[in-house]
């Protein structure tokens, strides 16, 4: 689905008039299309049909409870990386058994809480973590279920900051180390080590690295099975890329599923996939007002009321997001703008030299592809309160996060008027 086409000159998204929406809810405003999210999760399920496969949505992409609830209604479980994400997933009605816990640095308290909740599986990323899970599960008198996160040492051909499957990355362990764990698994009697996991990176636009990594993991599964190890689960991770730019090619869910089907042919256990971005990115827009147009010596700046604190991706990864002006753009003169926010950093730039229809103060623009890693990575930098979020469905909208007010932003701060010794 091409979101820019959906918005086009009509100014509507999921049947909702965006100008009327922001007149009520203000800007900056995150708006997500419920039908677009449903369409994605259903498409993925259809592509995976015929395999015993479960979707474990990566909560980090967008952890808003309403989004999680929507995905839970569509049968998705959750991939979490913190105790906070576990709370969100459980609160949204995702069954503990459908939660997998990934991440290189789980605290004892998080492991304990996950065991208490009865989550489905830990994706273990180091021997120290395996030891910790053993210790905590033994103290609880329970058995933890675990997969080893393999680092297949494959270049995911994505941005270096979101590449996770090379040997020099902090994630997972080598196949050689994992082999040692399976050989010595009696050392961890309170851990049922019966799964493999991988996640080589995010925003993957080529499936070739996934094919390569899966081949390595599948060969390891076969080796383990031949050695008598019962492998009940293979988790292929997330990472499926999306179109941030009109005309960009992104992988197709059916091609992705075909690749998994082929690599894991003959596997009798459960297959898990952990998409985040692919399910929600293109279903979200960040709506923002043009504060002013500024003619610099060298550039023409379009200064928005949204900034890097609201959507960090362009500043952090120099990521491209399509930007559209809401309204009738037919026959409009087009000009090149540097689209920036009000934050006091030169990096607070959404786009450079971007051709857009001529804009004026007060115009409304939509930054596309903002449904994933947008609100979830927002901060209050420059003391800018967190933006509101709305879910759109069939011409209606629900406010799923209120705009943060100033009092809420500083609520946990204290003056240094009470000193304690430590
Ligand atoms: C372990 C794990 N699973 C799944 C994901 C989801 O990634 P994406 O949003 O690229 O699908 C991530 C983030 O990259 C991750 O670290
Ligand atoms: N936050 C990143 C993706 C990281 C994925 C999490 N492992 C992005 O916006 O593209």
TrEMBL record:
<feature type="binding site">
    <location>
        <begin position="274"/>
        <end position="277"/>
    </location>
    <ligand>
        <name>pyridoxal 5'-phosphate</name>
    </ligand>
</feature>
<dbReference type="InterPro" id="IPR002986">
    <property type="entry name" value="DAP_deCOOHase_LysA"/>
</dbReference>
<dbReference type="GO" id="GO:0008836">
    <property type="term" value="F:diaminopimelate decarboxylase activity"/>
</dbReference>
<dbReference type="Pfam" id="PF02784">
    <property type="entry name" value="Orn_Arg_deC_N"/>
</dbReference>
<dbReference type="GO" id="GO:0009089">
    <property type="term" value="P:lysine biosynthetic process via diaminopimelate"/>
</dbReference>
<feature type="binding site">
    <location>
        <position position="239"/>
    </location>
    <ligand>
        <name>pyridoxal 5'-phosphate</name>
    </ligand>
</feature>
<comment type="function">
    <text>Specifically catalyzes the decarboxylation of meso-diaminopimelate (meso-DAP) to L-lysine.</text>
</comment>
<feature type="binding site">
    <location>
        <position position="277"/>
    </location>
    <ligand>
        <name>substrate</name>
    </ligand>
</feature>
<protein>
    <recommendedName>
        <fullName>Diaminopimelate decarboxylase</fullName>
        <ecNumber>4.1.1.20</ecNumber>
    </recommendedName>
</protein>
<dbReference type="InterPro" id="IPR029066">
    <property type="entry name" value="PLP-binding_barrel"/>
</dbReference>
<keyword id="KW-0210">Decarboxylase</keyword>
<feature type="modified residue" description="N6-(pyridoxal phosphate)lysine">
    <location>
        <position position="60"/>
    </location>
</feature>
<dbReference type="InterPro" id="IPR000183">
    <property type="entry name" value="Orn/DAP/Arg_de-COase"/>
</dbReference>
<dbReference type="GO" id="GO:0030170">
    <property type="term" value="F:pyridoxal phosphate binding"/>
</dbReference>
<comment type="pathway">
    <text>Amino-acid biosynthesis; L-lysine biosynthesis via DAP pathway; L-lysine from DL-2,6-diaminopimelate: step 1/1.</text>
</comment>
<keyword id="KW-0028">Amino-acid biosynthesis</keyword>
<feature type="binding site">
    <location>
        <position position="313"/>
    </location>
    <ligand>
        <name>substrate</name>
    </ligand>
</feature>
<keyword id="KW-0663">Pyridoxal phosphate</keyword>
<feature type="binding site">
    <location>
        <position position="317"/>
    </location>
    <ligand>
        <name>substrate</name>
    </ligand>
</feature>
<feature type="binding site">
    <location>
        <position position="345"/>
    </location>
    <ligand>
        <name>substrate</name>
    </ligand>
</feature>
<comment type="similarity">
    <text>Belongs to the Orn/Lys/Arg decarboxylase class-II family. LysA subfamily.</text>
</comment>
<feature type="binding site">
    <location>
        <position position="373"/>
    </location>
    <ligand>
        <name>substrate</name>
    </ligand>
</feature>
<dbReference type="InterPro" id="IPR022644">
    <property type="entry name" value="De-COase2_N"/>
</dbReference>
<keyword id="KW-0456">Lyase</keyword>
<feature type="domain" description="Orn/DAP/Arg decarboxylase 2 N-terminal">
    <location>
        <begin position="37"/>
        <end position="281"/>
    </location>
</feature>
<feature type="binding site">
    <location>
        <position position="373"/>
    </location>
    <ligand>
        <name>pyridoxal 5'-phosphate</name>
    </ligand>
</feature>
<feature type="active site" description="Proton donor">
    <location>
        <position position="344"/>
    </location>
</feature>
<keyword id="KW-0457">Lysine biosynthesis</keyword>
<dbReference type="InterPro" id="IPR009006">
    <property type="entry name" value="Ala_racemase/Decarboxylase_C"/>
</dbReference>
<comment type="subunit">
    <text>Homodimer.</text>
</comment>
<dbReference type="InterPro" id="IPR022653">
    <property type="entry name" value="De-COase2_pyr-phos_BS"/>
</dbReference>
